[in-house]
Amino acid sequence: MNSQGIRLTRVRLGHGQRTRSxxxxxxxxxxxxxxxxxxxxxxxxxxxxxxxLASVFANANISSQVRFIxxxxxxxxxxHDLTIPVSGTFEDDLRLLQSPDVLEDTIPAYLLAKVAQSNxxxxxxxxxxxxxxxxxxxxxxxxxxxxxxxxxLFTDAIFATSKADLTPEAYASHxxxxxxxxxxxxxxxxxxxxxxxxxxxxxxxxxxxxxHLRTGVGFAWAQDLEQAVVQLGQGEACALIVxxxxxxxxxxxxISTSEINxxxxxxxxxxxxxxxxxxxxxxxxxxxxRREISKxxxxxxxxxxxxxxxxxxLAVKGFLVETSPTAYLAPRKVETSDPxxxxxxxxxxxxxxxxxxxxxxxxxxxxxLAREGDEKKAFARPKGxxxxx
Length: 389
Description:
- The chain is an alpha/beta fold.
- The chain folds into three domains: 1-41, no CATH class; 48-179, Severin (3-Layer(aba) Sandwich), CATH 3.40.20.10; 220-363, Severin (3-Layer(aba) Sandwich), CATH 3.40.20.10.
- Helix content is 22%, strand content 24%.
- The chain has eight helices and 14 strands.
- The chain is elongated.
């Protein structure tokens, strides 16, 4: 025996075999016995279900006259304590549990409550004034009770710490809590709104009159904005369209449209609210000269926007590239927090136009800036490795 009074038996077993005894693990090797002792933790109490309780529950499951079955732990076994018949609705019968003959103020108990035919709920009644040992014992035995009775029959569970938790009003509050939507953080709500907007575009079939101006996240275009974008693509002058996202109606709306010079582009954009801008800019930085329509996302970092506003604007950024075949957009976008920095030099850098000039040979790798009519060189076969001598 060791210092704790536990008897240890030395057993010689084959290599790799293990034995479990008295909550201890014994490991043995082929030629000698070596003990490695550690406690084995268990989440259950080991309390068994009495056969009489199983029989009572089986009969109550097929009967329509039983409302509650009270279960107690007696002599390390789950035993049947009391059966309460049906006298009214389930909510009305909850008042029967207030009697001291059913539940005591200091003694825990389980209640198997039958709400409807083959529809049960478990009530774990563990009062705050109960002994700590009883609280732990009933908490660790609940899983064994459900497994023995058949967990598929139980559709809900109630945990009560006083009789006040077992009233019709408390049960109604419990059902409202179960039916309420799960709490979400602000970011989770915004992402849920975006997913709902993305799934809002249903199948439209082959309607020939459907608008070709679609966002990727379910936002609609205002009619005046559609016309302005089409005119922007068909025009030849330097022009600007400023638009915003109306979150209330899930619509892209037009703020302003004007023909401006690139020198006053920064002052033409609002600095007090986030917005998108489509800017048509004729220039001669490529060969041949072209008129590009670039997109800009403008926001003010000093102002405090709600996360939903910024999330919405960021979610619809990609739609501008695929706006309309009549309005070709430059493949690069410009994002800024200060509209004043939007000038000709800034656009040249952001759109990759600073590597080319009028009449100059485009840089290597810039296929979109290549000259028309340049002679194409044949593919030069790479040289192989040098031969070994």
